From TrEMBL:
Its cofactor is Zn(2+). This is Putative formamidopyrimidine-DNA glycosylase-like protein. Pfam families: Fapy_DNA_glyco, H2TH, zf-FPG_IleRS. One of its GO terms (biological process) is base-excision repair. Gene3D superfamilies: 1.10.8.50, MutM-like, N-terminal. Keywords: DNA damage, DNA repair, DNA-binding, Glycosidase, Hydrolase, Lyase, Metal-binding, Multifunctional enzyme, Zinc, Zinc-finger. InterPro entries: DNA_glyclase_Znf_dom_DNA_BS, FPG_cat, FPG_N, H2TH_FPG, Ribosomal_uS13-like_H2TH, Znf_DNA_glyclase/AP_lyase, Znf_FPG/IleRS. It comes from the Bacteria. PROSITE patterns: FPG_CAT, ZF_FPG_1, ZF_FPG_2. GO terms for molecular function: 8-oxo-7,8-dihydroguanine DNA N-glycosylase activity; class I DNA-(apurinic or apyrimidinic site) endonuclease activity; damaged DNA binding; zinc ion binding. It catalyses: 2'-deoxyribonucleotide-(2'-deoxyribose 5'-phosphate)-2'-deoxyribonucleotide-DNA = a 3'-end 2'-deoxyribonucleotide-(2,3-dehydro-2,3-deoxyribose 5'-phosphate)-DNA + a 5'-end 5'-phospho-2'-deoxyribonucleoside-DNA + H(+); Hydrolysis of DNA containing ring-opened 7-methylguanine residues, releasing 2,6-diamino-4-hydroxy-5-(N-methyl)formamidopyrimidine.
Amino acid sequence: MPELPEIEAIVGYLREHAVERTISRIDIASPSVLKTADPPWTELHGGRVRHVDRHGKFLDLDCGGLHLVTHLARAGWLRWADVLAAAPPRPGRGPLAVRVHLGPPGTGPGFDLTEAGTRKGLAVWVVRSPSEVPGIANLGPDAATLDEAGLAEVLRGRAERLKTVLTTQSMLAGLGNAYSDEVLHAARLSPYATAGRLTSGEVDRLHAALEIVLSDAVHRSVGLEAARLKGEKRSGLRVHGRTGLPCPVCGDTIAEVSFADRSFQYCPTCQTGGRMLADRRRSRFVK
């Protein structure tokens, strides 16, 4: 799933390559991704891209009075092309959902919004203001700009597990499953710790980890074309997706908690005092 660093990199790339270009045509290959009908998406035709921005994990193209907002969800992606084919794509065939021409079709550049797999979550809105998108209107503070006091306020009184708070966009915007694993490992905190019970020292560690992990990931990602971002993300992960491999800090074996449709990883030595966390495959619950 694209998270804050990857969306930030895509924003930077589009600011360089898409701003001041005119949308000549939009092809909708998967109508189900469109979540709005008024204004119609055809009103974007002839609009000039004025600015590109990020709201949490949402991508926002400001087209001068109208915004094309995208959430890539779990398996969505943006693919840039210097020349896009002129022929409209066939609806419902392959991963292509939306094609945006930023020049004459067949000779000009643009990008595709694609989604792999059968579980569909890619969403596109055409709105007059980003705040009209419910997910943006309900976003919590952005993880990349939050100071220590702001983080303490986010955590205060929360009875949820720390992993849950870090990945719930209405509480903290921008993090997903992968980078929350990385932040918790860097902070030496259990994913199952109760968010509102962290000590001031633990909150300080968590904030420092947020800054280090996200700034490093953004630094490695910004400037790369979209096609290279997935590989760059994987190469920088220290615990997420590395079940069974040695922890790069202590050498212990990276462990996994598995749910019905996802999993997360952690280091027992660095984060839980050597204890294994329970999941649906275990009968024991361990904090």
